[in-house]
Amino acid sequence: MLALIPSNQVAGWLLIHIHRLLDLIGLEKDKTAEEVIYIAIVACIALCLGWIIRTLILLAVRKFVMLRHNTLGKELVQHKVLIHCSHIIPPLVMLPLLPFAFTEDSLLRTIVFRILLVYTTIVVCRAICSVTSFVWLRFDETRNSKNLPIKGILDTIIGILWFIALIISVAIIVNKSPANLLTGLGAFAAVLMLVFKDSILGLVAGLQLSQNDMLRVGDWIVVPSTIANGIVTDVSLTAVKVQNFDNTIVTLPPYTLISTSFQNWRGMADSGCRRIARSVIIDSDTIVAATPEMVDDISARYPIIKAYISHLRELGHPDYNPGIAVVNGTDSTNLGLFRAYLCQWLLNNPAIVSDQQILVRVMEPSGEGIPLQIYCFTATTKWTAYEAIQSAVIEHVAVTAQDFGLRLFNDPSGTDVTTVNLVRQQQSADPAPASQK
């Protein structure tokens, strides 16, 4: 760009016309006015030239995109990469033209020149950051198929670039070498560590999360020490954003996920099945030994367990099959028969996968009764369908338990107390039998 501008000729031509203008208004000997007007004219020329070149480049790119239907060109225009890069043109035009209007010892020349150099540093850094962000975006869309949290690396690179630009700008203002400034910053290393503590911890945590594939955008995570329970929407250098299921946003520092434990449900989503582990409490007073008549009656009512009961009678003892999806009941009690029926019913249920663990087991008894747990996996991970399947299973358990002579435990309610009181009142109001008079 500098070679395209004949600086001495352009500057001489501008100075001649500025002298003529000052002569007309009677300020031909005012050096300050001459310098100010010269700076204003050069700045206007530079800005206009920059605007013209930027407009031509954007028109050319848009024309190319329309003809070729190029995705890369569309994204360049959409993310304003070319606009940010075109801001370099005005200072490149101004730098070769400014020195001709000033003497070497001019204070105004020094101030303007340093301001222009600082501005050039800023726009160059902004252009580099824009290109870097665009390259990262392309990589994230085309190559990052696992949605790894690599945005923290981009933030780190951009932060380093702006830090370098800041050091160069300060060096220009104070007229010192950047190396000397960096050497002096060594004394403030401890302070810098405190100031950038979160950024440093976030960078290390982001690298660990990415390297170990612990977290991706789109994962459902639960962090027990916080209120985060939802989908990860963004992972940056200093924050992990989680959208909870009530549409609230929780922001966590990345190192929180490294320093504490968190639950990632990605494995569940990838497997295609989701676990049900719900318990109902059986009233222990209703558990009785199974008689042959009871077994025959239940087999007639629920034919799906006929084959299993016949198998047990042939064996003469319970069958403790070690498989992951088998019937694991007995025919010695009504609760054992109920367990066998539920296992068989789950195996025949198309909403339950049969290649995962299926259990209907008795848990540790409590003062309320004997907990009966249904452990299985649904054939879908969708929340609505999963809850519907789980509800249907529990509802079926509650209804069929009565046919096996079992009763589910419920804490006494106000209705139960009222019923007992009414029965007692009725008994006390009835006259005694004649034989007791």
Largest sheet, spatial ordering of strands: 4-3-2-1-5
Number of strands: 8
For the terminal residues, how far apart are their CA atoms? Answer: 126 Å
Low-pLDDT ranges:
1-7
Helix and strand composition category: alpha+beta
Give, in order, the helices and strands: HHHHHHHHHHEEEEHEHEHHHEEHH
* Largest sheet: number of strands, sense, barrel closure: 5 strands, antiparallel
Q: Work out the helix count.
A: 17
**Shape designation:** elongated
Helix content: 55-70%
What is Rg? 40 Å
Mean pLDDT: 79
Beta content comes to 5-15%
Fold and architecture overview:
This protein is of the alpha+beta class and 437 residues long. The protein has 17 helices and 8 strands. The chain has a 5-stranded antiparallel sheet. The chain has a 3-stranded antiparallel sheet with strand order 6-8-7. A hairpin with a 6-residue loop joins strand 1 and strand 2. Helix 5 runs antiparallel to helix 6 and helix 7 (151-174) packs antiparallel against helix 10 (197-211). Mean pLDDT is 79; it is low at 1-7.
Any chance you could write out the topology, listing elements then pairs?
Layout: H1 7-25, H2 31-68, H3 71-78, H4 81-86, H5 89-97, H6 107-142, H7 151-174, H8 178-185, H9 189-195, H10 197-211, E1 220-222, E2 229-235, E3 240-244, E4 249-252, H11 254-259, E5 263-264, H12 266-271, E6 274-282, H13 292-301, H14 306-315, H15 334-347, E7 359-362, E8 370-378, H16 383-400, H17 414-429
Antiparallel strand pairs: 1-2, 1-5, 2-3, 3-4, 6-8, 7-8
Helix pairs in contact: 1-2, 2-3, 2-5, 5-6, 6-7, 7-10
